[in-house]
Amino acid sequence: MIQIRVCKKFGFPILQVGGELTPTTALTLLQAIREVCGQKPRTLGLDLSGVTEYDSTSNFVLDSAAQWLERDQGRLRILGMSKAVRCSLQRTA
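^ thats the sequence. predicted structure below, dont judge the formating
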C-alpha cells in the first residue's frame, strides 16, 4: 500500500510518499507525478522519507519524473529519503 499527499511548500508542489514503493504501487506514484507535471511546475519535490519498502525497479518512476520536468525546463528535487530508499539507491549507484 502506498500513500501520496500533495502539498505546496517553498513555492513548489511536493509529493509526500509513504508506505511501500514497489513495482506494483509505483504506477500510482507515476500517475500522481504525471498529474502534477501537467501543471508544468518549474520544480517538483519528492519526499520519500515515509517509504518503508523500496524496490530498485521503481527507479523508473524517478527517472520518468526527472525527464518530464527537464523537457519543460523544470527539475526534480528529492527532499527526503527513508533508509529503505537510501540503501536501494546506493546499491544501484
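The beta strands are 2-9, 12-21, 43-54, 75-81.
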